[in-house]
C-alpha cells in the first residue's frame, strides 16, 4: 500500500499530526495528494545530485501543468487557481533544485515517523494490557467525578432559582405590608419574620453548598494539575526523544474546560447572591459575611487552573533537524501553543543571548487549530545571537560548552473573560541553540540526556552538575532511538552487548550507571554517543529494511560472535556493527578448514557509508567471494544466523533475481578479491577499480 494511502487510514490523533505537518508552505497537501504516487517513486539521490534535482523540478512542474489541465476540464475553478499558485511558488527552486529534493525527502521522512509512531502505539497497547486497564480505571474514575461535578452544578442552579423565588415572595409581602394600615401590619409581622428566617436558612444552605462545590472543584483541579498535566508533560518530554507515548491534548482539554466552566458558573452564582443582597438584606446576613471569602477562593482556584491550562503543544523544532529542541541561529523554526501571545526568549544572564525574529505576537484564534481549540502557531521564527561586549559571546563562571547551554522560549498572554483577567505563561522544554550543523550531534545528545533524567523543565543549570543515568533508563532511551528511526527497537541481547561495552562483564547491570562525560562530553572524537549515533544514522540511511526485518544482529561483541557461530554449520554468518569504526558494519562467517579440520571465524573489514553509497549492503552479501585453493572464487556466506539460507533472507532485496552469468561471476570474483587483498586501500577506490574490471569482461 502506498505511504499516502496508509496515512489516510490512521486514527484521528495521528491524522492530526499529518495535518499539522502539512500546515506549512514548503509542500502543499494538495500537491502531495494529487502527485502522491509520483512523489513516492522519486530518486532520493536528487537531494545531493544537482542534475537529478533539475530533472525532478522540471517533471514536477510538468505534472502540475497536467493537473491544472485536468481541473480545467472538470471546471474545478478553485483547484485550478491553487495549482497555478503552487507552480509559481515551486519556481523559486530553479536556482537551487537540490533544496526542493531535500524538502520532499524531509516530508516523506516525517510521514514515515508518523506511521511508525502509530504502529508503535498499537504495539504498546497490545503489549501493555495491564497498565492500560489501570489507566482506563483511573480515567473512568475521573470521568465519574466530572459527571458528579456537572450534576452538582445543575442542582446549584435549581437552588439559586429557589432562593430567588423565596426572596421575591418575601419582598412582595414586605412591600405590601408597608402599604397596609397599622392594625393589619401588626398581624403580618410574625408572617414576615417567618419568611426572613426561612430566607436566612436558605442563604446559609446555599453558601454551604457553594463551599462543598468548591471543595469538589479544588479536588479535581488538584488531580488535573498535579497528576494528569504532570504525566502529560513527562510523556511529551519522552516523545521528544523517541518514546512512543500518546501526547494528544484533546481529553485533557475537555477536563480542564469542564472544571473551568463550572468555576465561572460559581462566580456567576456569587454575583447573583450579591445582587440579591442588594435588594434584600438584614442584620447578620450570612451572604455579607461569607461571600468575600468564597469569591477569593473561587477566583484563586480558577486562576490556578487557567495558568496550568496554557501549554506548549508542539515543542520548538526546525525543518530537517536531528530532532526537536535543537535550534540553529538564522534557521527558521516553528512552535505551537494552545492562546493573544507574546513570545520572548528567556536565558541565563551568563549565557549567550538571542533575539527572536519573525512574527512574535499572535492573536488567539481557532483558524490554526484542527481540533477546535484556541491556539497560536508560530511557524517562521529565527534566532539571532546578540553581541555582548567586544567578543560577542556571553561569559559564564561554569565551563559549559555551547551544546550544554539550555534556554527556554516563554509565551506570555492575558486571559480576559467575564470580568476576570489572568496573566498566563507557558515555557517550552529547554532547547539547545547551535550556530553550525556540525554541532547537531552533540546538541541532540544534550537533549536526550536532559529529557531522560530531568523532570524539572526549568532547570537550565542541569549540565553544571549533571546526574548519572542508571542502566535501565539509559538502555530504554537507546532503544527509543531505534524505535523512532526504524520502527524496531533493541532487544535484550543487543542491550546486553552495549552494557558489556560500557561496564564490562557484570552479573546484573541494573545498578550500573553512565556518567554524562562517558556518554558525550569526553574530549575525544569517539565518545559513546558518537559511536552509537554513527550506527543509527547508517542504519536509517542504508539498512532500515534489513534492520526492521531482524536480519542484522548488530550489537554483538567479537567474543559472543565466535561462540555463536562455532555452534553452527560451516557457512553460517551474521551481521554486526563495528566496535572500532564509526558507522561501520561487517559480517563474519564460520568455516571449517578442510585440510586441518580447524574451526575458524573470519571477518571482513567494516563497510561504511562510503561503500554503501556505491553498492547496497545486500548486494555486497550476495556477490561476496573469496579465493579457495586453486584460485577458485567462492561465496562463503551460505546461512544467515541461526540457519536461514542467504537467498531466502535477502532474495527479495536483490536488484536482479537471475544470476549465474559470466559477467556476474567475474564481478563477484573481482570485488571479493580486491576487497580481501587490498584492505589498506579505501573501499570506494577498490569499488571503482572493480567496476572497471567488470567492463573489461
TrEMBL record:
The principal localisation class reads cytoplasm
One GO cellular component term, please give it. cytoplasm
PANTHER family, A to Z: SIGNAL TRANSDUCER AND ACTIVATOR OF TRANSCRIPTION
Q: Which GO terms describe its molecular function?
A: DNA binding; DNA-binding transcription factor activity
One GO biological process term: signal transduction
Q: Which residues form a coiled coil?
A: 139-166
Q: Which UniProt keywords apply?
A: Activator, Coiled coil, Cytoplasm, DNA-binding, Nucleus, Phosphoprotein, SH2 domain, Transcription, Transcription regulation
Name where it's found: Cytoplasm; Nucleus
**Which Gene3D superfamilies does the UniProt entry name for this protein?**
EF-hand, SH2 domain, STAT transcription factor, all-alpha domain, STAT transcription factor, DNA-binding domain, STAT transcription factor, N-terminal domain
Q: Which InterPro entries match?
A: p53-like_TF_DNA-bd_sf, SH2, SH2_dom_sf, STAT, STAT_linker, STAT_N_sf, STAT_TF_alpha, STAT_TF_CC
Q: Any idea where the SH2 domain is?
A: 547-683
Pfam family example for this protein? STAT_bind
The record's listing under PROSITE patterns reads:
SH2
**Which family is this sequence assigned to?**
Belongs to the transcription factor STAT family.
Q: What is this protein called?
A: Signal transducer and activator of transcription
Task: Report which superkingdom the organism of origin falls in.
Answer: Eukaryota
Q: Which organism is it from?
A: Scophthalmus maximus (Turbot)
Amino acid at each position: 500500500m502506498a505511504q499516502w494511502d496508509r496515512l489516510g487510514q490512521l486514527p484521528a490523533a495521528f491524522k492530526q499530526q499529518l495535518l499539522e505537518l502539512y500546515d506549512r508552505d514548503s509542500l502543499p497537501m494538495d500537491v502531495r495528494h494529487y502527485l502522491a504516487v509520483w512523489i513516492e517513486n522519486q530518486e532520493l539521490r536528487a537531494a545531493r545530485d544537482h542534475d537529478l534535482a533539475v530533472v525532478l523540478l522540471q517533471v514536477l512542474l510538468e505534472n502540475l501543468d497536467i493537473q491544472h489541465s485536468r481541473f480545467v476540464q472538470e471546471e474545478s475553478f478553485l483547484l485550478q487557481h491553487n495549482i497555478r499558485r503552487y507552480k509559481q511558488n515551486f519556481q523559486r527552486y530553479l536556482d537551487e533544485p537540490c533544496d526542493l529534493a531535500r524538502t520532499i525527502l524531509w516530508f516523506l521522512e516525517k510521514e514515515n515517523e508518523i506511521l511508525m509512531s502509530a504502529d508503535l502505539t498499537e504495539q504498546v497497547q497490545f503489549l501493555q494490557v495491564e497498565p492500560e486497564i489501570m489507566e482506563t480505571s483511573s480515567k473512568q474514575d475521573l470521568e465519574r467525578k466530572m459527571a458528579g461535578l456537572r450534576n452538582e452544578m445543575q442542582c446549584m442552579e435549581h437552588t439559586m432559582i429557589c432562593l430567588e423565588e423565596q426572596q421575591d415572595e418575601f419582598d412582595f409581602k414586605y412591600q405590601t405590608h408597608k402599604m397596609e394600615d397599622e392594625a393589619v401590619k401588626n398581624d403580618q409581622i410574625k408572617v414576615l419574620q417567618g419568611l426572613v428566617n426561612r430566607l436566612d436558612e436558605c442563604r446559609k444552605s446555599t453558601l454551604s453548598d457553594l463551599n462543598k462545590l468548591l471543595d469538589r472543584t479544588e479536588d479535581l483541579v488538584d488531580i488535573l494539575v498535579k497528576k494528569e498535566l504532570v504525566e502529560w508533560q513527562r510523556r511529551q518530554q519522552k516523545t521528544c526523544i523517541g518514546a512512543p507515548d500518546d501526547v494528544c491534548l484533546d481529553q485533557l482539554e475537555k477536563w480542564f474546560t469542564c472544571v473551568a466552566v463550572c468555576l465561572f458558573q460559581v462566580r456567576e452564582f456569587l454575583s447573583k447572591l450579591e445582587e440579591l443582597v442588594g435588594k434584600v438584606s438584614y442584620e447578620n446576613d450570612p451572604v455579607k459575611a461569607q461571600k468575600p471569602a468564597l469569591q477569593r477562593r473561587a477566583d484563586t482556584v480558577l486562576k490556578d487552573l487557567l495558568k496550568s491550562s496554557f501549554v506548549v503543544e508542539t515543542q520548538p523544532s526546525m525543518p530537517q533537524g536531528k530532532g526537536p529542541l535543537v535550534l540553529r541561529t538564522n534557521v527558521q523554526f516553528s512552535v505551537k501553543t494552545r492562546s493573544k501571545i507574546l513570545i520572548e526568549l528567556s536565558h541565563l544572564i551568563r549565557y549567550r543571548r538571542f533575539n527572536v525574529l519573525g512574527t512574535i505576537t499572535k492573536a488567539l484564534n481557532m483558524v490554526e487549530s484542527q481540533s477546535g481549540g484556541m491556539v497560536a502557531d508560530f511557524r517562521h521564527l529565527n534566532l539571532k545571537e546578540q553581541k555582548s561586549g567586544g567578543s560577542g559571546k556571553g561569559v559564564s563562571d561554569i565551563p559549559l560548552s555551547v551544546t550544554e547551554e539550555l534556554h527556554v522560549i516563554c509565551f506570555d498572554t492575558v486571559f480576559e473573560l467575564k470580568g476576570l483577567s489572568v496573566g498566563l505563561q507557558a515555557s517550552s522544554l529547554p532547547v539547545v541553540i547551535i550556530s553550525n550543523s556540525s554541532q547537531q550531534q552533540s546538541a541532540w545528545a544534550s537533549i536526550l540526556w536532559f529529557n531522560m533524567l530531568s523532570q524539572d523543565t526549568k532547570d537550565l543549570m542541569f549540565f553544571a552538575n549533571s546526574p548519572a543515568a542508571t542502566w535501565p533508563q539509559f538502555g530504554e532511551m537507546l532503544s527509543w532511538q531505534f524505535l523512532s528511526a526504524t520502527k524496531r527497537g533493541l532487544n535484550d541481547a543487543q542491550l546486553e552487548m552495549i552494557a558489556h561495552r560500557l561496564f564490562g562483564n557484570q552479573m546484573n547491570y541494573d545498578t550500573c550507571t553512565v556518567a554524562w562525560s562517558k556518554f558525550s562530553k569526553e574530549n575525544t572524537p569517539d565518545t559513546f554517543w558518537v559511536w552509537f549515533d554513527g550506527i543509527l544514522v547508517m542504519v536509517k540511511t542504508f539498512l532500515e529494511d534489513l534492520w526492521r526485518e531482524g536480519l542484522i544482529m548488530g550489537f554483538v561483541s567479537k567474543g559472543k560472535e565466535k561462540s555463536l557461530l562455532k555452534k553452527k554449520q560451516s557457512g553460517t554468518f551474521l551481521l554486526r556493527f563495528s566496535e572500532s569504526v564509526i558507522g561501520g558494519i561487517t559480517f563474519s562467517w564460520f568455516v571449517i578448514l578442510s585440510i586441518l579440520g580447524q574451526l575458524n571465524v573470519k571477518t571482513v573489514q567494516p563497510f561504511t557509508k562510503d561503500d554503501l553509497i556505491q553498492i547496497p549492503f545486500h548486494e555486497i552479501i550476495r556477490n561476496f567471494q573469496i579465493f579457495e585453493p586453486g584460485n577458485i572464487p567462492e561465496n562463503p556466506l551460505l546461512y544467515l544466523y541461526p540457519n536461514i539460507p542467504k537467498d531466502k533472507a535477502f532474495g527479495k532485496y536483490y536488484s536482479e533475481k537471475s544470476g549465474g552469468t559470466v559477467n556476474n561471476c567475474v564481478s563477484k570474483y573481482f570485488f571479493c578479491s580486491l576487497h580481501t587483498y587490498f584492505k589498506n586501500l579505501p573501499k570506494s577506490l577498490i569499488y571503482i577499480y572493480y567496476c572497471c574490471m567488470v567492463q573489461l569482461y
